[in-house]
Write a structure and sequence with these properties.
The chain is α+β, with helices and mostly antiparallel strands. The protein folds into three domains: 168 residues, no CATH class; 135 residues, no CATH class; 169 residues. Helix content is 50%, strand content 16%. Strands 4, 5, 6, 7, 8, 9, 10 and 11 form an eight-stranded antiparallel beta sheet that branches. A three-stranded antiparallel beta sheet has the order 1-2-3, with no helix packed on it. A hairpin with a 4-residue loop joins strand 7 and strand 8. Helix 1 crosses helix 2, helix 4 packs parallel to helix 12 and helix 4 crosses helix 14. The longest helix has 32 residues.
Length: 511
């Protein structure tokens, strides 16, 4: 009887048992994080491919027949153990700050590190792509890319329309033709096509090419192609609507055209990529060779599994201990400079038909102040200890929610830095102009107040949140918005905002 064939069968059994046991261990210890991944896959068409990533990774291993007899544990990897430790720390820090996407990345990283630790460096090196492909399970990129893709789509479409000779009037992400009005919303950004293209392109590059530079180039191609294609898709839909006098491409057919167009683009990408396909690498015939490789004894397996269990369960226990000792204040801090001011007087709420409104707020405050003819609104929201979906820093905390979109839209968004020459204090603000259906329009400025730290940068705010909670600083964490309304243009609105913030924020000793 051929010993190498027996060993190959044992390889399959050992590997299959390990895959199941280590995945089960991860799901058991980090059940809430895994469930959050599945919940996103179920509700989001953009990330529905997450269900197929693990099966696809197993298929990539299975279809590479030359690997089947080589998937044996050699010696535990210290690099794999370090990778588990690093991702464990990331999971702990993100659990403290309620940063779900980092928790999800860290859990997948610990899963990869567990395979790496158990199988050893030499075996894991042969599985490096199928293992790291598991990161595609994590729904990442939408929050960061969506605004840029929407702006690009609007720029691309309007530029092509004008190049075609069609007159276009644009306000932010909204533009008007003589035939009708169009808006670039989230579904028009092409983020769904982009993420799907990157996922499929990565698999195609791995199974089609053996040279690393070819794989990298095709993955870059799978990123660039759908971005350009989505701009062309948006232009074509607008042209169809324009030429049909807004009878076509304005309803369900709008979505159908987009899906059909994307399928064509993927086909073209793969067809072009096939011209540079690498010939199949010849693998050494090992059917008649004995495979000399060390495997773990039962005692060694038990010790390694125990080490993996300990390395996993440490982080949730540490998170529970730290969070049980931290309870953020839910109050709204009063500015001392605001109490003693003589220029700005608090007044009743004016009828502006708009006010900030966030979900999951623990405590909030909305006040209005008047100085001569200028009225300023000040909104502050405290999310307390935060729960999943109700965080201070969350993409859903937008100035225009779904109920307001019929009456309000963004015209211009930018960043502005204000400074006080007296004490050299400064603050960076996210500013926006909101256009409403009424005669008044809004100018807003917003930022985060994390204890004594002010920033408009969500990443810096998260880092300071982590530091503040690790040292058990219980000071409130506030989302601040200052806003005012003026008839268009908004040139007279900005000085009022600047004056208010300079007097009552940069002069206040609490900040």
């Amino acid at each position: 009887m051929n010993t190498s064939i027996l060993l190959t069968k044992n390889n399959k059994i050992i590997f299959s048992v390990y895959i199941f046991s280590i995945l089960l261990l991860s799901i058991t210890v980090f059940f809430d994080t895994w469930m959050s991944l599945i919940a996103i896959w179920m509700r989001s068409d953009t990330y529905a491919h997450g269900f197929f990533v693990l099966p696809a990774s197993l298929w990539l291993i299975w279809q590479n027949k030359s690997l089947h007899s080589q998937i044996l544990p050699t010696a535990p990897s210290l690099l794999g153990a370090s990778f588990i430790l690093l991702n464990g720390l990331f999971w702990l820090f993100s659990a403290i700050t309620k940063t779900l996407v980092i928790q999800q990345l860290a859990v997948v990283g610990m899963l990869i590190g567990s395979y790496w630790f158990y199988l050893g460096n030499s075996t894991s090196k042969k599985l490096i792509f199928p293992l790291f492909f598991l990161y595609f399970m994590v729904p990442v990129g939408e929050e960061q890319l969506l605004p840029h893709l929407m702006n690009y789509t609007a720029n691309f479409t309007v530029a092509l329309l004008r190049l075609t000779g069609i007159s276009v009037y644009r306000e932010g992400l909204h533009f008007t033709l003589v035939s009708g009005q169009w808006s670039v919303v989230e579904a028009c950004s092409g983020i769904r096509y982009l993420i799907a293209s990157i996922t499929l392109g990565t698999i195609y590059a791995y199974i089609t090419y053996s040279k690393p530079y070819k794989r990298i180039l095709f993955i870059l191609f799978s990123i660039i192609a759908p971005i350009i294609a989505n701009g062309l898709r948006a232009y074509m839909i607008v042209m169809i609507g324009h030429l049909s006098n807004m009878k076509l491409a304005t309803g369900v057919d709008h979505i159908v055209y987009g899906a059909f167009f994307f399928a064509i683009i993927i086909f073209i990408m793969f067809y072009i990529g096939s011209f540079w396909r690498d010939s199949e690498v010849k693998t050494e015939n090992i059917s008649n060779k004995a495979i000399n490789r060390n495997t773990y004894s039962k005692k060694q397996n038990s010790i390694i599994i125990a080490c993996l269990l300990l390395s996993q369960i440490t982080w949730p226990l540490s998170s529970q201990q730290l969070q049980s000792r931290y309870h953020a204040q839910t109050s709204i801090p009063e500015w001392s400079a605001l109490i003693h001011n003589t220029q700005w007087q608090e007044v009743k709420a004016p009828n502006w038909n708009w006010q900030p409104q966030f979900k999951g707020v623990s405590t909030d405050s909305l006040r209005y102040f008047k100085n001569k003819e200028s009225i300023i609104g000040l909104y502050q929201a405290n999310f307390g200890d935060e729960t999943q979906g109700s965080e201070l820093i969350n993409m859903q905390n937008t100035l225009i929610n779904s109920d307001d979109r019929k009456n309000w839209r963004f015209i211009k968004q930018s960043t502005q830095v204000l400074s006080n020459p007296k004490n050299k204090e400064s603050i960076a603000l996210d500013t926006a102009e909101l256009y409403g259906n009424s005669t008044n329009h809004l100018f807003t400025a917003k930022w985060y107040q994390i204890g004594g730290f002010n920033t408009n940068n969500p990443y810096l705010a998260k880092i300071y949140q982590l530091y503040k909670r690790l040292i058990l600083n219980m000071e409130p964490e506030i989302y601040c918005i200052v806003f005012t309304t003026q008839p268009k243009p908004l040139d007279t609105a900005t000085p009022a905002i600047q004056s208010f913030i300079t007097q009552f924020i940069l002069n206040d000793k609490v900040f």
